[in-house]
C-alpha cells in the first residue's frame, strides 16, 4: 500500500467520524510548505545573485541593471527556478528581483497561500522602482492575478502554469486525499477562515485585468490542467496565450519560447508607453 493510499483510507474513515478534525489536519498540510534545496543547474545563477531584504522581512534575489521585473515562484518553489528566464531578462538589460514567497526560503512565516503571496507582491512593489512586469509561476501566477485586483502597479504581467479558479484547486486537493463530503466542506471553510477571503471569489472570471499580459501553460502539465490557461486568457482581454506542447508543470520555465514571449510583451508595452507619452 502506498502512503497516499493509506492517507486516503484513514481520511475516508475518520472524515465521517470527525470531519472538522480531519479537515484541520489537511488544512495545515495544505498551507505548510517544505523547504526544497536548489537543483545543481540553479547554483551558478544563485552564486551571482545579490540577496536583499525588504522592509517587512521578505527576502529576494536581485540581478542585472535596468528597468525592474518582479518574479514570484510557486508552491515549494525557489527564485532560481526561473534561471533561464532570468538570464534572458538580464542579458536584455533588465533588473530582475525574484522573491522568496512567505514561508519559503529566507522569507518569514510558517504558512503559505495565494493571499499571503499576493500581499507579498504588494509589499515588494511598494519598495521597488516602478515595475515593467510581474511574472508568476503556478501559485505565484495566481497570486499575481489576485494582487492586480488589490492595486498592484505594473506595466504588464505574466501568468505561467497557474490555476484560473482556486476553489477547484482546494476541491482537487481534498478529493485526492480522500476526504468525504462533510470533511471536504469543512476543509474549504477552514481555509477560507485562515486566508480571510471567500474562495469562490478567487476566480479570474470576476477579475478586472486591464493591462497587457501573457498566459503560458504546457499541454502535458500534470499538476495544473492546461485547460485553465484558456480560461485566464478569455478573462484577460489584452493577453496572449502561449500553449507549449511539452514542459510539464515546471520544466516550461526553461523553454526559450517563454523568454522570447516575455521580451515581446515588454517591447510591446514600451512602445505603447512611448506612443502615449
Characterize the structure shown.
- The protein has 277 residues and is of the alpha/beta class.
- The chain has a domain at 1-30 and 169-194.
- The chain is 44% helix and 15% strand.
- The chain contains 10 helices and 8 strands.
- It has an 8-stranded mixed beta sheet, sandwiched between helices.
- α4 packs across α10, α5 (114-127) crosses α6 and α7 crosses α8.
- The longest helix is centred in the last third of the chain and has 21 residues, at 256-276.
- The protein is globular and about 65 Å long.
- The model has no long low-confidence stretch (mean pLDDT 92).
- This is Alpha/beta hydrolase.
- Biggest β-sheet strands, sense, barrel: 8 strands, mixed
Query: What is the number of helices?
Result: 10
- As a whole number of angstroms, the C-alpha radius of gyration is 19 Å
**Low-pLDDT sequence parts:** none
| Alpha-beta content class | alpha/beta
Shape: globular
Helix content: 40-55%
Strand order of the largest sheet: 1-2-4-3-5-6-7-8
Protein name: Alpha/beta hydrolase
Pfam family, one: Abhydrolase_6
Domain AB hydrolase-1: 69-190
Keywords: Hydrolase
Which secondary structure elements does this structure contain, and how are they paired or packed?
Layout: H1 3-17, H2 19-30, H3 43-47, E1 50-53, E2 59-63, E3 68-72, H4 83-91, E4 95-99, H5 114-127, E5 131-137, H6 139-149, E6 157-160, H7 166-176, H8 181-195, E7 213-218, H9 228-235, E8 239-244, H10 256-276
Parallel strand pairs: 3-4, 3-5, 5-6, 6-7, 7-8
Antiparallel strand pairs: 1-2, 2-4
Helix pairs in contact: 1-2, 2-8, 4-10, 5-6, 7-8
